[in-house]
Specification:
- By secondary structure, the chain is α+β, with helices and mostly antiparallel strands.
- It has helices at 10-30, 83-90; strands at residues 34-37, 46-50, 53-62, 75-79, 95-102, 107-112, 121-123, 134-139, 144-147.
- The strands form 2 sheets. Strands 1-2-3-5-6-9 form a 6-stranded mixed sheet. Strands 4-8-7 form a 3-stranded antiparallel sheet, with no helix packed on it.
- Strand 2 and strand 3 form a beta hairpin.
- The longest helix is centred in the first third of the chain and has 21 residues, at 10-30.
């Protein structure tokens, strides 16, 4: 069976995962959330609560994004494998948000789960993307830019 997505990179994970989760947890706390969990369980990165709701939060780092968002990047791409999180948390009466951070972790796009629909899953191309690899293609104009510093 042909693989259509890049293999997991432990080296990139080791560089960015803990930093992104910590940055996200600190941001959520600054917005009045109580952090419930940041435990690595291969589901969402940070679970928080606020005003009687449970928030499921996933952090990604786009290392090519430095400085202002290049407006010629008309969309934010999230790997289609994250669809499993959309499905998992759909029935849990909570809110699922994806945060795509810049390389310096000082800003992020917040993307609501309601934007993560099957019609937005398409093949993508790029120097670090495998042929046939699919992503959610979310117009950046539909996301919320969060300034962290």
């Amino acid at each position: 069976m042909k693989r259509n997505n890049r293999p997991f990179s432990k080296s990139w994970y080791d560089v960015y995962d803990d930093k992104a989760k910590q940055t996200l947890a600190e941001y959520l706390e600054s917005k009045g959330h109580t952090i419930v969990s940041t435990k690595e369980d291969y589901n969402v990165d940070v679970v928080s609560q606020k005003d009687g709701y449970t928030y499921f939060n996933e952090a990604e780092v786009k290392v090519a994004w430095q400085g202002d968002w290049p407006t010629h990047w008309s969309e934010i791409r999230i790997p289609s494998r994250k669809r499993r999180l959309v499905e998992k948390y759909k029935e849990q009466n909570g809110v699922l948000n994806f945060y795509v951070f810049d390389k310096n972790l000082d800003k992020a796009w917040r993307i609501k789960d309601t934007l993560m629909t099957d019609d937005k899953i398409k093949e993508a191309s790029g120097r670090n993307i495998w042929k046939g690899e699919k992503f959610f293609h979310i117009p950046y104009t539909e996301a919320e830019l969060v300034e962290l510093q």
